[in-house]
Design a protein that fits this description.
The protein has 309 residues and is an alpha+beta fold. It has two domains: 150 residues, MutM-like, N-terminal (N-terminal domain of MutM-like DNA repair proteins), CATH 3.20.190.10; 131 residues, Helicase, Ruva Protein, domain 3, CATH 1.10.8. 26% of the residues lie in helices and 22% in strands. It has eight helices and twelve strands. Strands 2, 3, 4, 5, 9 and 10 form a six-stranded antiparallel sheet that branches. Strands 1-7-8-6 form a four-stranded antiparallel sheet. Strands 11-12 form a two-stranded antiparallel ribbon. Helix 1 crosses helix 6, helix 3 crosses helix 6 and helix 5 packs across helix 6. The longest helix is centred in the C-terminal third of the chain and has 24 residues. It binds a DNA duplex (16 and 16 nucleotides) through loops. It holds the Pfam family H2TH. Its cofactor is Zn(2+). This is DNA-(Apurinic or apyrimidinic site) lyase. One of its GO terms (molecular function) is zinc ion binding.
Length: 309
Amino acid sequence: MPELPEVEVVRRGVARWVVERTVEDVEVVDPRSLRRYTDGPEDFRRELTGLTVVDACRRGKFLWLPVRAADGSEPSRALLVHLGMSGQLLVSSPEHPRPRHERIRLELSPALDESGQPLPEQLRFVDQRIFGGMLLDRLVPASDGHGTVPEHAVHIARDPLDPLFDVAAFHAALRRRRTGLKRALLDQGLISGIGNIYADEALWAARLHWAAPTETMTAPRTYTLVAACQEVMRRALDAGGTSFDSLYVNVNGESGYFSRSLNAYGRAGQPCPRCEAGGDDGVIVRERFANRSSYRCSRCQRRPRRFRP
DNA sequence: CCTGCTGCCTGCAAGC
DNA sequence: TGCTTGCAGGCAGCAG
């Protein structure tokens, strides 16, 4: 499941291998990957063909490639990509067999790498579960006035690794909410890039309970929580960034995910890595939350007096 | 406006 | 063995 660090790894791969290349053709293998996005596969193909990728941008888990027309004008549109649960972007050669779940394929103009070798000429969107998708979208001014964002991502908040992320504003917004802490962390309009795994990891690192009411958060606690989010994601990014050589591992969004080490998520019944010396307390427990699982330490993430599930 | 629930998807694992 | 059920999860859309 790609979260922010995985998407950032993909963004870097796209920046390196795809920017400055022109889309020469498009094959929509499965139109469901354009779900509620365009006027249909034919329109998508017609509009995208001939455009040149000029950049690779990201906000939270949304990735977009601003494109310019052949006349060289400033980009007014972008190819917006969301990897959903199982999406991958692969840069590969035409002779490479079609992956089982390939949904969209772009033919790219020829290009050479740093050592003069020809680069693969296809960008493939592979997505087993079709929770992700693509869209050719209009670029609009960001809601805080800094830069542009695709129209379908304008409601997404800045993520904690964004230099323009505003902790004080996040704290104020958190205090206005009437919900539990984990729901707030998963709300991409409040803070973006955090999914179920990193929410649990960040809450564990900050020693906070998932059901703590947001309106009771103090500024120091919010700062601790944001720092924990940044720490957890930066560590995953460092791990994912190390296996950056192969084209495949590079642009497929998996490297960070499989090499991350987890302290709480998925560790039900195991001793808490922080307070394992403590006996039967200090154990990771699994609890149901909003039709999914939450993992926390029974000792260092105590249930709050007030409880917002 | 705010909050929280449902449905979209596929493949795997567990249970009968 | 072969079926059914549950689980994984981000996010758009919608109900209250």
